[in-house]
Structure formats: C-alpha cells, structure tokens
C-alpha cells in the first residue's frame, strides 16, 4: 500500500533532477540573457534568480527523497512479512513465485531470500540489491551535499562546500543505475489477458491447474530516470568542456597591485576576451588548487584593453593567492591563472534605465566600479547611445581604508562631470559604518575643509547607515515620471530591505516613478 507513496515522489524526483543542473549552466544563462535582451525586464530578471531556483529544486529533491525512502522501507518490511506468510493466501502465493524457466514462473516479490533470519532480511535486501545499494549511496551523497551547502559552512569553509558538492557525479550515476534493479514489477500484458487477477485472486490453489488461471507472469518496468537527466547532463558536460578550453587559453598579467584593506587588484589580458559592465569571471589558480574556481566581478570597463578584478582577503583560497602575489619580485608575472567567463548579471541592464541607484557594501562595490568607468569613457567619447541621465551611488564600508582604492575613480568622475557642466549627473554618498573616537575627533577638527578628510572628495562622508526611506523619497521627488533601476551587490539582509523599499515607493500609476530591484547573484 506504500507503493504509490514511493512511485509518485520518484516521478517528482526525476523531474527535479532534470532541472537541478540547468541553473548552474552559466554559459547557457548568458546565452538566454542575450536572447532576451529585447524582452521584458521581468523575463530577464528571472535569470538572475538562478541560484534561488537551484536551491528550491534541491529542497524538493531532499523532501521527495525522504518520502520515497520511507515508503520503500515500509514496502521492504511488508514484502518480508508477505514472504513469511503473515498476510492472506494471495500475498503468500505471489511471494512464493520465483524465477524458474523450467516451471515458467517469474517473481513478483523482490525479497527472494529465505535462508537467513527473517528480521535480517530487510537489511540484507537493502545492502545487496542494486536498488537498495544505489539508494543508500545516493541518499548519503545527497545528505552530504545539502548539509555542506548551509550558509555557515559555505561562508566559513568554502572548500568543504566546493569539494562536497562534486558528489553530484556519484548522485547522478547512482540515480541512473537505481531503476535497473526492477524492484517494482508488474504483470505482463500477455499474462493479464490470460490470467484475470479479479477472477483468480481467490483461487490461488488452482493457479496453473485450470485454463482460466494460468500462473501469472511478471516483469520489471524500464528504468526511466535517464530519459529525464540525459539532456541536462550533456549540456553540463559541454559547460565543463568549455571551461577546460578556456582554462587552457593563455592569460597574461598586465599589473598586480596591493590595495589598502588587503585588497588585491589583478589586471589581466586574454586574447579575444570581450566583456560588458557588471559581468563576472571564475578564476582558478593551479598553484593553490587544480579544482577550485571562484567568482569575481570585473572592475574594468568594456572600453579598456584589459580586464581587472579586486580580490578581498576572505580566508582560504584568497589569502593564499594574496600571499603568492605579495612574494613576487617587482614586475614579475604571477602564477598561471585560468579564467572562465565572462558571465552576465543583473548589472548589465544598468544602461537600460534612465535613472539608476547603485548600492554597494564593502567589496560589493566592484560591479559599480565597472559601470562608473564605462560611463566616464562614454562621456569622453560623446557616445550617443547613452540613455542614462542620472545615477545615485551609495557605498557602505566599515573602515576608512576601504575607500582609498576607489576614491581615485570618483575624483576623476567628479572632475569630468564638472568640466562638462554635468555635476548633477552623478550623486554619490559614502557611508562609514564603523569608526572610533579618535577618528570622530579628527573629523570634528577638520569639519570646515572643502574636501572630505577620509576620501579627499568634495562630497563629505556620512557616518552610520543610510536612512533608506529618506533616500528613496528623495529619488522619487527628483524623478517623478522615471523608471528607476535599483542595483545591489551586498548582503542578503540589505537586499530584503531594498526590495521592500522599491515596492513601497513605486507608484501604482505607471506614468509615475517605478522602482525595479536587481541583485547580484553568484
């Protein structure tokens, strides 16, 4: 009676296992994003939620696996009881059928062992049958994958998350093999025509003796999982092949710079490499690990003849990379670097809006560095395709040193806008969320200076966190009939706040201000 509870989750599992690989096929997503460039913002934004979708599918796989496993454990227990003759004559007769060509019989009950203790039979069946053994393997692989994907492990022990996640290879291999054990069986079509189960179920002693009730014949159904997963598996293999080809392509170091707050800037050159604003790449350094690939947003502009990334010290792989680069002699080339990408993000759409709000937290400013640089080049070249007429930029940092590497770019932007009489094009606000009393005293003494004591910019640094209600209200008043794109590269908690503010300050009237929220996802 638990068979439907096993089969229905199995069907759901097949469908979800078909979907689970697609959201992490980043080249496929970039291709789709390019194909949807003329489609609505809503359609393109769905592609930016690929990791959220990936997690939801994983949760469903975990839930259905649990239901499927419990149902089959009950089935095995009841199969065993039936084999021992605990139930009625029909179940006993069906369980006694065996694969015997001489007697022209086929089994229905997969529990065929009778020479060990009855209480040991379920365990023996689970660990000796193809279905049972592969079920144990894929369940253990799934448990390890899901537990190592928890936020606390992913943030603190990324290597554990990365390597454990590759158990998906074992998971999919076991999944494809799982169905070939033919545990779930059915009466053959020919046997059903000759042996009517409704007529013969109460005449088990007459099976094979009267023409109306020949001995029933059974067969296993075909394994179906591979029908679902073969397509996504081929697409994913193509993704990995493309990554390997890109890894083999030569990458040259143009410049290696150590910035304040243990931020490493790498300027790299790769033949035929083309990027767009806000995109990211995966980096692999074989000197540290042959297998680990880490995503980094590019801080360079498409107009430049190189691409750059800023890498903050965050433990593990990043610390090792920074240590290697710091030990290099001046002007030397760094270790071999594999580059996969570029891949599209929500920030690519920034120039589709007349007004944009850019919010970066800490190192999360990197995609906006690319955007601001690109704007600078577009103004310099008098690019007529630039639709954007106003940008609001917010940067939240815990320490003053973090502002230093980005301040030069903002100074260049300030000067460029003033020279062109477009001082109102870029409004930026820097928020320092951590400081001590000595710093506060220093600021008070220099409060009358024309430039900020922290950044040297004309715009003074704000202390504390932004009042987002005030900021959104100000943007709405200054742009009463505009569609405003709000872009964030920062923590999830801030994303929830900004998404709510976008909904709160969007006007119902489509002719008035409308805010669209976009977040970077890796």
UniProtKB/TrEMBL annotation:
Record-linked PANTHER family: NADPH OXIDASE (PTHR11972), NADPH OXIDASE 1 (PTHR11972:SF203)
PROSITE patterns for this protein: FAD_FR
Name of the molecule in the record: FAD-binding FR-type domain-containing protein
SUPFAM superfamilies: Ferredoxin reductase-like, C-terminal NADP-linked domain, Riboflavin synthase domain-like
Entry GO MF terms: metal ion binding; superoxide-generating NAD(P)H oxidase activity
Transmembrane segments: 12-32, 53-74, 125-148, 160-184
Superkingdom per UniProt: Eukaryota
Keyword rRNA-binding (UniProt): no
Keywords: Heme, Iron, Membrane, Metal-binding, Oxidoreductase, Transmembrane, Transmembrane helix
Bilayer topology term: Multi-pass membrane protein
Single GO BP term: defense response
Catalyses which reaction(s): NADPH + 2 O2 = 2 superoxide + NADP(+) + H(+)
Domain FAD-binding FR-type intervals: 243-349
Any one annotated GO CC term: NADPH oxidase complex
Subcellular location: Membrane
InterPro entries: Cyt_b245_heavy_chain, FAD-bd_8, FAD-bd_FR_type, Fe3_Rdtase_TM_dom, Fe_red_NAD-bd_6, FNR_nucleotide-bd, RBOH/FRE, Riboflavin_synthase-like_b-brl
């Amino acid at each position: 009676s638990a068979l439907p509870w096993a089969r229905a989750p199995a069907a759901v599992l097949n469908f979800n296992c078909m979907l689970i690989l697609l959201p992490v096929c980043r080249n496929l997503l970039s291709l789709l994003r390019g194909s949807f460039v003329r489609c609505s913002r809503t359609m393109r934004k769905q592609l930016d939620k690929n990791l959220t979708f990936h997690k939801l599918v994983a949760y469903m796989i975990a839930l259905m696996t649990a239901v499927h496993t419990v149902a089959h454990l009950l089935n095995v227990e009841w199969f065993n009881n039936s084999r021992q003759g605990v139930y009625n004559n029909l179940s006993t007769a069906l369980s006694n059928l065996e694969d015997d060509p001489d007697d022209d019989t086929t089994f229905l009950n997969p529990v065929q062992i009778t020479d060990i203790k009855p209480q040991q039979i379920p365990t023996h069946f689970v660990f000796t049958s193809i279905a049972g053994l592969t079920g144990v393997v894929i369940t253990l692989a799934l448990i390890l994958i899901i537990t190592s994907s928890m936020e606390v492990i992913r943030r603190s022990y990324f290597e554990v998350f990365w390597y454990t996640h590759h158990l998906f290879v074992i998971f999919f291999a076991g999944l494809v093999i799982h169905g070939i054990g033919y545990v779930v069986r059915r009466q053959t079509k020919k046997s059903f025509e000759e042996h009517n189960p409704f007529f013969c179920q109460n005449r088990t002693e007459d099976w094979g003796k009267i023409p109306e009730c020949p001995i029933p014949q059974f067969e296993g159904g075909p394994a179906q999982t591979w029908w679902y997963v073969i397509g996504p598996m081929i697409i994913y293999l193509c993704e990995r092949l493309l990554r390997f080809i890109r890894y083999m392509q030569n990458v040259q170091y143009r410049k290696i710079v150590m910035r304040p707050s243990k931020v490493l800037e790498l300027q790299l050159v790769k033949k035929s490499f083309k990027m767009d604003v806000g995109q990211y790449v995966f980096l692999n350094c074989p000197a540290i690990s042959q297998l680990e690939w880490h995503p980094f947003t590019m801080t360079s502009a498409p107009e430049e003849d190189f691409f750059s990334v800023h890498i903050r010290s965050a433990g593990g792989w990043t610390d090792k990379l920074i240590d290697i680069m710091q030990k290099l002699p001046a002007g030397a080339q760094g270790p071999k670097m594999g580059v996969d990408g570029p891949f599209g993000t929500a920030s690519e759409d920034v120039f589709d809006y007349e007004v944009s709000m850019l919010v970066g937290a800490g190192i999360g400013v990197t995609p906006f560095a690319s955007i601001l640089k690109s704007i600078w080049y577009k103004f310099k070249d008098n690019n007529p395709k630039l639709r954007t007429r106003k940008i609001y930029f917010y940067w939240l940092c815990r320490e003053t040193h973090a502002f230093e590497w980005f301040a030069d770019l903002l100074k260049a932007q300030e000067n460029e806008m003033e020279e062109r009489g477009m001082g109102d094009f870029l409004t930026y606000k820097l928020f320092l969320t951590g400081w001590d009393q000595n710093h506060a005293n220093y600021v008070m003494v220099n409060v009358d200076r024309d430039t900020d004591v922290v950044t040297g910019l004309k715009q003074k640094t704000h202390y504390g966190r932004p009042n987002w209600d005030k900021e959104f209200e100000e943007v709405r008043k200054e742009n009463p009939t505009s569609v405003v794109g709000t872009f964030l590269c920062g923590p999830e908690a801030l994303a929830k706040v900004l998404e709510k503010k976008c909904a709160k300050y969007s006007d119902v009237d489509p002719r008035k201000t409308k805010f669209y929220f976009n977040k970077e996802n890796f």
